Target: Chaperone protein HtpG
Amino acid sequence: MQKGQIRVHTENIFPIIKKFLYSEHEIFLRELISNAVDATQKLKMLANSGEFKGELGTLDIEVKLDAAKRTITISDRGIGMTAEEVDRYINQVAFSSAEEFLSKYKGDGASIIGHFGLGFYSAFMVSERVEIVTRSYREGAQAVRWVCDGSPEFTLEEAERPWRGTDVILHLYEDSLEFLEPERIRAILLKYCRFLPVPIYFEGKQINNTEPIWIKRPSELTSQDYQKFYKELYPHYDPPLFWIHLHVDYPFHLNGVLYFPKISRNFDIQKDRISLYCNQVFVTDEVKDIVPEFLMLLHGVIDSPDIPLNVSRSYLQGDPNVRKINSHITKKVADKLEEIFKQDRKELEEKWEYIGLFVKYGMMTDDKFRERAQAFLLMQDAFSTSTWYTLAEYREKAAPLQTNQDQKLVILYTTDVDQQYSYLQAARDRGYVVVKLDSIIDAAFIQSMEEKWEDVVFTRVDADIPERLVKRDESSHSVLTAQQEARLKELFAKEVPNPAYRVELKGLSPETQPVVATRPEMNRRLKEMASMSGQAASWYGRIPDELVLTVNTNHPIYQQILQEQNEEQQRKMIRNLADLALLSQQMLSGEALNQFIQRSIELMSGIKKSSIILPS
Model:
């Protein structure tokens, strides 16, 4: 029997490994199974190169629990170790056998997971004692047993093992007995080892898919294969809209499949659905620095051996391969969307309710993507569900009438066709083109695009009277005298005392409504964005609901009102006209709405207020 001390390459690293190397103790199982997979893959490579000529037999890994002995055993039929190799690779912390193996078999080592030499020692986070019983694949090799209690002391002696491979036996701490619960182990295996390339058995059942679709080439797969894999990943989600298969060998290695899901209105809850793998070992689902921010709503898997298992945020932010992967994913998404737009625009239009969120979010946050996406950004006509415009198409159709005094294209939009119907109709009567922008992201999208597109402004159809939606240097003429206008101002001041409602007189077309209620674009937009971002209590969120009541002095009803001798009747008519305008903005309710109904009946019938009984 050999006794000795583990030779640590970095002073005092052993207690650091034991207590602080991994933030989550469950990682120990991932690390030990990864080592077992490495040992198995190494044997396959030696067999392929002719260095191992024996029978491979069944190559799988088994995880066994023994509650009575308080042990977890991870067994493999891989390359195994001699006493010399145990001394070299286990007793010398931070000297990685995988690194040495890769240097010898350059070009063939893509499937070797462990590049660290520290993963094995994660076992001591949960174990008071660890045993290794191993036998090398080499002919005539003697099996050996290595035992360590978590201190630098160890023992190494000959042992009995009838076949090659390695058993790692963990004797658990009292406070780690949760790992003897089968459901706990099964959950960890499914999380970290679900797609490892070597069969893994637990309680007699294989728990992993050794050939996930991302390791295959797209030419080998059908649409059904992609749909089936999505169902395997997300059994409770609707089928995806479409997917992108990633496969890069140079200048970095990357494989994966990203799915465009159907996004609900509350899309925040659907983030963190992309899993990062390293050679089929799960690393994390926090991929913010690897995947562009606007694609965090995608689902799927990315796998890159260029990103290590023990990944940290600072590493991701500074690593050049991560930046390349990020750019590549952006390009592939833009390529896919452009391909659909050119080959089957109808499909893009039908799915735009969901796809539009990705595109608009990307245009807001990624300048390179915005440049590409301008070609396939779609906007639906407010009056026709089958008519869609790209930015270029909208410009061509709308520019003659919707170019303002600053030579900017005015994109007119609605957020609610039913609520804003009268404004839409007035805009259409003037020959304007109006689009629907009613998604949860559109308020922020509009603001962002106005900053990035210097020759475009967005205006909601109820932001101003129809004549001023596209601002030009135009004068208006009122048929009323100055004395008559002064009287109208006096009447409206009495009947609309709310300081948040600004009344202005304007000579408009006689066909335009007598009073038009509009919401100034910028104030309304700031309030919407504050509400969407959860900052309703902020300064922006507390901006009053400003409303402009534009009185059309050229409407013939004012001649009638001004000729009315009964001032009370005059004021009722003025109040009703203002209420009609407020009603169009859904700003009349409760008592005010009831009074409007009663007053309207009085005006139409001449019946006195006291004799009216309305249903409750």
